[in-house]
Amino acid sequence: MAFQNNSSQEMMSEINVTPLVDVMLVLLVVFIVTAPLLSQSLEVKLPKTAAVETRMDTKQQVVVINAQGKITLESIALSDEKLAQRLADSAAGKDNFELHVHADESVPYGRVAQIMAIAQHAGVSKLSFMTMAGQ
To answer: Are 124 and 94 within 8 A, CB to CB?
Structure first.
């Protein structure tokens, strides 16, 4: 041990390195655990494009599909045929028309795909999707 019982009462000139070694070992373990996580990434080369200004003159409509698969367009309940007609009228000759589809989380994908097909046949080229929690 570092304690001595000398009568000369000299000061101890040694540094206790045990706490330093403990801290370094903890840092080493942290590094060993986190290093593999940092190297797991996918290398994707994204295309470079010029910045595009957002258009403020877009016309948007919202289609809501509830849990039972019923359709409402702008808060009006519609059948599939009437939805197709309304979308065709709204999107006719307009390249700035956007359709937002809000579907309940319990709606089967097949029903959402039907609405996508109706919108495509009506001439809608810009779709965005959102989900809402079931009630």
So the answer is: no
